[in-house]
Amino acid sequence: MLKKLPLNAKLITYTTAFGLLFGIAQPAEASTLTALNQGIVIDTFTECINDGVALVIGQNPTDQYGWQYAIDSANDGVNGLQVGGNVYEIYSLALKETDDDIFVALNANMPLTGVNGTAADDGNIGWGDLFFNFSGKDFSTASNENSLFGVRFAGTNDSLVSNIGLYGDVTATSTTAINSGFSSIEAYNQHVATYGCTGADCQPSLGDLAANSNYFNQSQSLNAIASGTFLTGISFLSTADLSAAGYRLNQSSGQHTIAFKFSKSSICDRGFCQTSQTTESVPEPSGILGLGVISLILTTSLRHQYRR
After folding, report:
1. Which residues contact 215 (CB under 8 A, 6 or more apart)?
2. Which of 68, 30, 36 is nearest to 272 (CA)?
3. What pLDDT does 236 receive?
4. What is the tens place of the pLDDT at every residue in 57-78?
5. Which residues does 239 contact at the CB level (< 8 Å), separation at least 6?
6. Mind listing the pLDDT tens digit for each residue in 225-243?
7. pTM of the predicted protein model
8. Mean pLDDT for all residues in the chain
9. Is residue 148 within 8 Å of residue 130, measured between CB atoms?
10. What sign for the dihedral angle of Cα 97, 237, 223, 209?
11. Most buried one in 1, 49, 106, 280, CB count within 10 A?
12. How far apart are CA 4 and CA 7, in angstroms?
């Protein structure tokens, strides 16, 4: 007859085996390409430079859902002599990055289609284009070097590129002359200072940047794509899409939230993404080999102990 191991011996053997098995699952590093890295600047203005907003990656914390928010002054939108809270007021710009996409959300009083019945040449004043600057240089320098990325997201605007979507090799231009707008950011700032409210939070701002920031050439009003290489389309996001993505819908008080996403692969393919490391607990190849060794040892041990 075979001699069976005592129950307590079995428990010790199996416990040791399982302990070794779980101990073999070692933390492993997985590489992820990130586009929205420290210091990158994203900005947009209206077609008349009646307001604008910029977000600097890393200047504000990323929330638990991966969103970064730039909050703009609620008192610096210009509509004639009325300053603050009008149809051109921009409240916030938010961005989120996933493994595959970049999400953008703008909260403002102006709808995606702009404002009709205006003094603009075409009767409509709307959104300019959205710019991404990965170069580490000021906006005008990056534009002159064709190193900006730009998104035309408003089909009614006066962008010089024809399709809605993401562009690379971008240079910027101004559309303020045909939109009854300010000839420069400096002129916009002076108008707000002259006709705006007084007291706290009444000065013009550009979200994460001061309105007089030297990131922009204050004598210019660059707000639209002049030229670029079309890279990919964009997908507009509904309120339900934004909610599912963790966007804080009630954070800003603008009447409209304009949101879209696009694939970041075109940015990464051009070398503007960085590799980051994430830790995952997965069996290493050496651990898998170790499982085989443990199995062999355990089987041999049991054979010796179940003897005649």
Report:
1. 41, 54, 138, 139, 209
2. 36
3. 98
4. 999 999 999 999 999 999 999 9
5. 249, 257
6. 999 999 999 999 999 999 9
7. 0.82
8. 86
9. no
10. negative
11. 49
12. 9
Spell out the SS3 assignment of the chain: CCCCCCHHHHHHHHHHHHHHHHHHEEEEEEEEEECCCCCCEEEEEECCCCCEEEEECCCCCCCCCCEEEEECCCCCCEECCEECCCCCCEEEEEEEECCCEEEEEEEECCCCCCEECCCCCCCEECEEEEEEECCCCCHHHHHHCCCEEEEECCCCCCCCCCCCEEEEEEEEECCCHHHCCCCCHHHHHHHHHHHCCCCCCCCCEEECEECCCCCCCCCCCCCEEEEEEEEECCEECCHHHHHHCCCCCCCCCCCEEEEEEEECHHHHHCCCCEEEEEEEEEECHHHHHHHHHHHHHHHHHHHHHCCC
Structure tokens at 219: 């004598």
